[in-house]
Structure formats: C-alpha cells, structure tokens
Design a protein that fits this description.
Length: 527
C-alpha cells in the first residue's frame, strides 16, 4: 500500500496537488487519481495543499494501540517540544501507556553528527541525509548525486538501534512531524504528532491530569537544535571550507539538477521543509516558526540543567543508497504528435501556463504518453474543443442564424445559406421590425418567428429565425376544420329549428331559448 493515498470520492480534479507536487508523482487518468509510489518522495505536500482533503497518508494508530499496555521504547523527535504546549506531561502519558523508556531522538542525532564530521573530513563535499525526503529525491530522480550523500543512518534509525542496544529488543515507537519517516521501515511503529493527538482524543486522555516528567538519559549536548535551520551544522561542530543550508524541495531540485562538486569542501545541510523539521507536514501550523524555535531553545535551556552522562556504544550506522529512477525513452515524433492532438501544432499555442499541473506543454505531452495524464487536463485544449463543438451546433442548427455588423450580413449558418441566396439588403429591416412588433416574418413560402440578441464583444447583432411554417399550416388546417364543422352544425340546427318551430307552433311555445343557446354555441366555436 502506498504511503500517500488518494480519496477519489472527495477529489474534484482541481489539479492543485499536481501543480504543487515537486516531482509530478500524481496521475489523473480514466477518471481516477493515484500517487505514483515509484516517483513519490513522500514530502506530503499534496496532503497539506489539497483543499478537499482528498489526499492523506497511511495512519499507524492501530499498530500503536497494539503496543499499549505492553513494554515498549519511545523515541521523541526534537520538534516534539515545539509541537506540545506541555511536552513533559505527554512524556508521562507515554509512560502510562507502557513506555519503559522515553528518550530524545536528539541523542541519535548527536551520534549521526559525529559521523557527518568524519565523512566530511575524509571525503570533502557532503550532503546530509537526516531528512528522508532528501534521500528519496536523490534515489528516485537525481541518482547522480548519490555519491555525495552522507552514507549514514538517519537520527531516528540510529536512535532506535541505540535503544535496542541499551534496553533489549523491545518494540520502538518514533514520534515526529514527518510523514516520510514511515517509509524508512526500520522502526516498529512511526507516529506523527497528528496521530498521537488523534489517539489521545479518541482515548479521552487528559494530559493535564499527569505530572511532568523529563525524558530519560543519556542526554545530547547540542543536537536538540537539529529541527531548526542550521541546527545540523550547529551540532556537527566542524570547521567547514563552506557551509550552506538548502531548504525546500524546489531548492533541493535546483541544487541536484545542477550539482557539480567543488574543489572546496562544502557541507550541505539539506531539508525538505522550509525552516527545518519544526515546519514538517504533521506538526501544528497555528504557531509561527519563531515561536516553535523559541520553544526548542527553552527546552534545551531547561534540559541543560540536568547532569550529562557519557556513554560508549558501538553501532553500525553505515547505509547504502541505490538509484531507483525509471528511465523512459520517448520518441520526439510521438511527443509532437500528442502536442498536435492537443491543438498545439503552433508553437504560439504552447503556453506552458502550468494550469494542468505540469510545467510545460511538452512535459504534459510526455505524461499523456506515459498514461499519467489526459489531454483534457489542458484548459486551452478544452476551450478549443468547446468552441469547435459550439460552432458545430450553430452550423448544424435547423434554425437560421444570421449575424449582422454595421448593417451587413457577416455570417450565415447552413440553414440560413439555403434560405438566403443573397444578402437581401431589406431583410435586416424586416427582421428587426418583426422582432420588435412580435410578429412572424414571411420569406418566400416559409414563415419564421424572429429572436434577436447582441454580441457585445463582436459588436454584432444576431437574428435567430425559427421556422414556424408547419405550425402555421396546422393552425390554418384547424381553422378550416372549425369553420366547416360550424357550417355543418348550422345547417343541421336550422333544420332542427324548423321542426321545433312547427312543433312549438302546435304547442304554443317559442324558440327564443333555442336561438339564445345556438348564438352562445356559435360564439364559442368561433373563438
């Protein structure tokens, strides 16, 4: 199952997720949207950006629930202390749920930083690998930079190894702000802060009823600053020829795309999130980066009062990287063919507007060929199709449509062409008069009802002639039938009246009432 999941029922195909996905790992095809796991770097941008909440990530709350009540080990990311208003009470909550040890992941970060320092001294230019998104971006999209990645475990993995080394093979829970950590697959259960908050709410746990407890030692010395900008460099404590911080996937792509190792040793601190992990996808967003950084500093100050304990543990933290990029050879002729199919044969129509989610029309055409996109995702393509369909409807309409500008007929559809063999200079006046009087107009042997409207953009008048000849013929036939019926009834009534008069004369009665009735009947029929 992919880590990032789509809820198709909620998706309204606004393409906002695709526009904001830095690696375009989302497909829209055959009425379905999917995250392409082989291309996804798990930055969770689509989860955060989707206005319909149609993107989400795999939750592990049930796996955590199975841990509860049994002994487990908990590793809490440094940003834990930026997310929670009362983090030390949450430490107590974890203890109550079965955590034998609750320890700062920053301890693992400190061990990793020593490895960074060693690798930098040995190899020169190095890119940090604490952020899993950085690693996935390199492996899946820019494998040329893999030799320059620091081949050392992330702080989470290093700390999990340390916990098991010190406390035995108990399950390890990691709590952090990062969705991508779930894809590292080396810790028993990974929960985001959002998930722990949801669990606490579901279980109706009130943290305010718990006492404050500090995490257990041993303690880090500087790595509590890891989740903020320049926090890794601050922890490494090495003299660099040059040191740069690159934050945000777009900036990382720019770096990797144009990466050329320098003769100088450059330490590159890389993070997918602007501002560092305190701005991760699953950390609270109601606090500013300044406030969250201040909370980290306050925690570091408070914990510095505790006695530092030294320890020596041998851990194998070496890791390997592998290129996972899928190469696709696509014929240029096929790309051009798709562009033509999208109505972009003319270079001027290749707007590269990005509305579909892709950065260029060419990139979109490649996505169509790969089955990741549909031609209909292009706004201009749809508009052109709509215009073509509209024109066809107008052209094939059984009603005559005439467009007039400056007193001259500038357009006639097929029906109007068959009707009018010439411009008929007097026709325009007749049509206008017919419309305003609300009377039909007769052209040759046909009768038409006239509708009129103005096209402001074209500054033109449009006349729509609806053929009502058949209806008129039917009305005339009906009138003839009524008239003939009335005539025959009148003859019959005259005869009947004669008989009645003779009988009435014998009986001394009058036919006045019969005459009145007949007059009323005749009036009704005539109407």
């Amino acid at each position: 199952m992919p880590l990032i999941v789509s809820n198709e029922a909620d998706c309204l195909y606004c393409y906002k997720c695709l526009r904001n996905c830095p690696v375009k790992a989302i497909s829209f095809c055959a009425g379905k949207t999917n995250v392409q796991e082989e291309e996804c770097i798990h930055c969770a941008t689509c989860v955060s950006i989707c206005p319909q909440k149609a993107k989400g990530y795999t939750k592990n709350i049930e796996e955590f629930r199975k841990l509860c009540g049994k002994p487990f080990l908990a590793s809490i990311a440094p940003s834990f202390f930026a997310h929670y208003d009362e983090p030390y009470r949450i430490v107590s909550v974890l203890k109550s749920l079965g955590a034998e040890i609750v320890q700062e992941t920053a301890l693992g970060a400190e061990i990793v930083s020593k490895e960074y320092s060693r690798i930098f001294q040995e190899r020169g230019t190095v890119i940090t690998t604490a952020c899993p998104v950085v690693v996935e971006l390199a492996e899946k999209h820019y494998p040329s930079v893999l030799p320059h990645l620091a081949n050392v475990d992330s702080p989470m993995v290093a700390h999990a190894k340390l916990l098991k080394k010190l406390h035995g093979e108990l399950p390890v829970l990691f709590l952090g702000p990062c969705v991508a950590k779930k894809a590292e697959g080396t810790v028993d259960v990974v929960l985001t802060f959002e998930e722990l908050d949801a669990f606490i709410e579901e279980e109706r746990i009130d943290p305010s009823r718990f006492d404050e407890q500090f995490p257990e030692g041993p303690y880090p010395s500087r790595a509590r600053m890891y989740p903020v900008s320049s926090g890794i460099s601050y922890t490494v404590q090495t003299q660099f020829d040059a040191h740069i911080v690159v934050e945000g996937v777009e900036n990382l792509i720019e770096l990797f795309k144009n990466f050329t190792p320098s003769e100088r040793k450059i330490f590159i601190e890389a993070s997918a999130c602007h501002g560092g992990c305190i701005n991760g996808p699953a950390i609270r967003k109601d606090l500013s980066l300044v406030e969250k950084r201040s909370r980290i500093v306050e925690h570091a100050r408070r914990m510095s009062q505790l006695q530092q304990s030294s320890f020596q543990v041998q851990l194998n933290l070496e890791r390997a990287f592998a290129a996972k990029k899928e190469e696709h050879e696509i014929d240029e002729a096929r790309i051009e063919e798709v562009l033509i199919e999208m109505g972009k044969a003319d270079e001027n129509k290749r707007l590269n507007c990005g509305a579909c989610g892709y950065n260029s029309c060419r990139e979109k055409a490649i996505a169509v060929i790969l089955g990741k996109a549909e031609k209909e995702m292009c706004i201009t393509y749809l508009v052109d199709k709509l215009k073509a369909a509209t024109h066809k409807v107008v052209e094939e309409s059984p009603n005559a449509i005439i467009m007039v500008k400056d007193g001259r007929i500038i357009y006639r559809n097929k029906t109007a062409l068959n009707l009018l063999r010439s411009n008929h200079e007097d026709l325009i006046l007749r049509l206008r008069e017919s419309f305003f009087k609300g009377q039909p107009v007769q052209i040759d042997s046909r009768v038409y009802y006239v509708k009129f409207f103005i096209l402001p953009e074209e500054k033109a008048d449009v006349y729509l002639l609806v053929d009502i000849t058949k209806e008129r013929e039917q009305e005339e036939t009906l009138r003839r039938i009524k008239k003939e019926t009335l005539r025959k009834m009148e003859e019959m009534l005259v005869k009947q009246m004669r008989v009645v008069q003779e009988v009435a004369g014998l009986l001394g009665e009058t036919v006045a009432e019969i005459k009145v009735s007949f007059t009323e009947l005749r009036k009704t029929l005539e109407e």
